Amino acid sequence: MSSDILAVDVAGIRFQNPVLLASGTAAYGREIHGVIDLEALGGIMTKAVSPLPRNGAPPPRVVDTPGGMLNAIGLANPGVASVRANDLPWLAANISRARVIVNVVGDTVEDYATVVSELATADGIDAFELNVSCPNTKAGGLEFGADPRALAEVVRGARAATTLPLFVKLSPALADIAGAAKIAVDAGADAITLVNTLPGLVIDVERRRPALGFGTGGLSGAALLPVGVRATWMVRRAVDVPIVGVGGIATGTDAVQYLLAGASLVALGTSALRDPRAPERVVRELEAWCRAHDVRAVGELTGKLEWES
Ligand SMILES: Cc1cc2nc3c(=O)[nH]c(=O)nc-3n(C[C@H](O)[C@H](O)[C@H](O)COP(=O)(O)O)c2cc1C
């Protein structure tokens, strides 16, 4: 379902509504086609794509937590050549109304530009999202997003490799998330996605071992909602590019919180894994909320939190 009330223009792209599927929770679309009506959504952010195939982390890869879940998938993906040959053609042939944003990861600064340049001429991509919440193996495992120089280099490298819009996705664990957003924008980012998962550890007390095969993991789901909304509000005041709000969204009013805090788009991950109909329901609930509150265009809500601190 879509209506003009919900249509938004972000980074030069027209979205029929602002509700997307978050990266890593809907693979490359084909896997969930038939379960979710992708064409009813604003778009899909794909699973991460790295230069070479990645097997990912050992099982178990997910565990429930109070108010969410912890995952360590290890960015498993078939690699850029396979995604280009097998997944993007399917998206290009089957998806026209929903937008496609390809999520990119790497172990080195150069990896990001490699993936982006290999996909820059592929059909069916509207934008790239750089996941900088992963360890830079050449810098002792420090996260790209936490290292101002590496962050700027990643974004500049990707910027030089494509004319498509670049979204940069940041971790809520960054000490200065607004500062990181500013570095990304100064280096050429067109939008900021907030937030990735929050690092956590669940212990299986009987075995006295981590519950996840990898050990630590990333927390997602309802528990992340206020964290992501605050990050959105902080970044909104620091940069003047659109924000995609992600983290804990399960209802239309959750989405409205992100919009008021400063987001122009929202994305659902964990709630869509639990209930594949959640994204379409959130589209309907958001439209109903707008109508009930006399909002004629959803973009009017962006950044309209009435609070100065
Ligand atoms: C199983 C799983 C896999 C994920 N994979 C990726 C990924 O490949 N790239 C990425 O940037 N974020 C990834 N994420 C993070 C989500 O896109 C999202 O930022 C996070 O889960 C918070 O949103 P949620 O609370 O709606 O799930 C993943 C999350 C989950 C739960």
Explain how this protein is built.
By secondary structure, the chain is an alpha/beta fold. It has a single domain, classed as Alpha-Beta Barrel (TIM Barrel), CATH 3.20.20. The protein has eight helices and 16 strands. The chain has helices at residues 80-94, 109-119, 148-161, 177-186, 225-238, 252-261, 270-274, 278-292, and strands at residues 8-10, 13-15, 19-21, 43-45, 62-65, 68-71, 99-104, 127-131, 166-170, 191-194, 198-200, 203-204, 209-210, 217-220, 243-246, 265-268. The protein has an eight-stranded parallel β-barrel, surrounded by six helices. The protein has a four-stranded antiparallel beta sheet with strand order 5-6-14-11, with no helix packed on it. The protein has a two-stranded antiparallel ribbon with strand order 1-2. The longest helix is centred in the N-terminal third of the chain and has 15 residues, at 80-94. The chain is globular and about 50 Å long. The mean pLDDT is 96. Flavin mononucleotide (FMN) is lined by residues 22-25, 47-48, 71, 73, 75, 103, 131, 169, 196-197, 220-221, 224, 246-249, 268-271.
In terms of topology, how is this protein built?
Elements: E1 8-10, E2 13-15, E3 19-21, E4 43-45, E5 62-65, E6 68-71, H1 80-94, E7 99-104, H2 109-119, E8 127-131, H3 148-161, E9 166-170, H4 177-186, E10 191-194, E11 198-200, E12 203-204, E13 209-210, E14 217-220, H5 225-238, E15 243-246, H6 252-261, E16 265-268, H7 270-274, H8 278-292
Parallel strand pairs: 3-4, 3-16, 4-7, 7-8, 8-9, 9-10, 10-15, 15-16
Antiparallel strand pairs: 1-2, 5-6, 6-14, 11-14, 12-13
Helix pairs in contact: 2-3, 3-4, 4-5, 5-6, 6-8
Flavin mononucleotide binds at residues 22-25, 47-48, 71, 73, 75, 103, 131, 169, 196-197, 220-221, 224, 246-249, 268-271.
